Amino acid sequence: MEYNTSQKRAILDYFEANPNKQVSIEQIFDSVKAKTGKSTVYRLVNSFVKEGLIRRLRDEVNMQIVYQLLKADDDCASHFHMKCLNCGKIFHLKCDQSNQLQRHVLTEHNFKISSGKSTIYGFCRDCNIN
Fold first, then answer.
1. Which DSSP symbol is given to 18?
2. Rounded CA gap, 26 and 35, in Å?
3. Other CB atoms within 10 Å distance of the CB of residue 115
4. pLDDT score of 73
5. How far apart are CA 55 and CA 77, in angstroms?
6. Kind and range of the H or E element at 81?
7. Could you write out the three-class secondary structure of 27-70?
8. Exposure winner among 27, 28, 67, 108, fewest CB in 10 A?
């Protein structure tokens, strides 16, 4: 039996409206607080993580736990990510050079990079701050 269908839908709608952002529980709650309480947001977000609908990450810049929508075609464990420090948008870095970097680090430095947990911070084209 499904519970909290409207609350679940509100939270999933929020993630779908922000597919390339990593968001905190506070940001999610601010968006859906008219429909549900904060403890329900925590519970539902944790259930979405267990179901593989969203992923849980640690934002090393802001030192907080954040969440991001997982799309069916994103194999986030196999590539690096880039995060804009200004707008917060996430970019998937899927290219031969990043794969070469992983191979180089493994071969030359005997260190295997966990690419899905690796984020490069900087500024996107729209926010490029000189």
1. S
2. 14
3. 18
4. 58
5. 11
6. strand 80-84
7. HHHHHHCCCCCHHHHHHHHHHHHHHCCEEEEEECCCCEEEEEEC
8. 108
From the CB of residue 108, how many other CB atoms can be counted at a distance below 10 Å? 8
The Cα 14–Cα 30 span in angstroms is: 10
Q: What integer best gives the mean pLDDT of the chain?
A: 85
How many CA atoms lie less than 13 Å away from 74 in the CB half-sphere? 19
Q: What is the pLDDT of residues 4-39, one digit of tens each?
A: 588 999 999 999 998 888 899 999 999 998 888 999
- Beta carbons of 35 and 6 less than 8 angstroms apart: yes
Residue pointed to by tokens 């900087």: 122
Reported as a pLDDT band with limits 50, 70 and 90, residue 99 is confident
What are the structure tokens assigned to 58, written together? 């640690």
pTM: 0.67
- Structure token digits, residue 20: 């390339």
- Strands 64-69, 119-122: pairing kind: unpaired
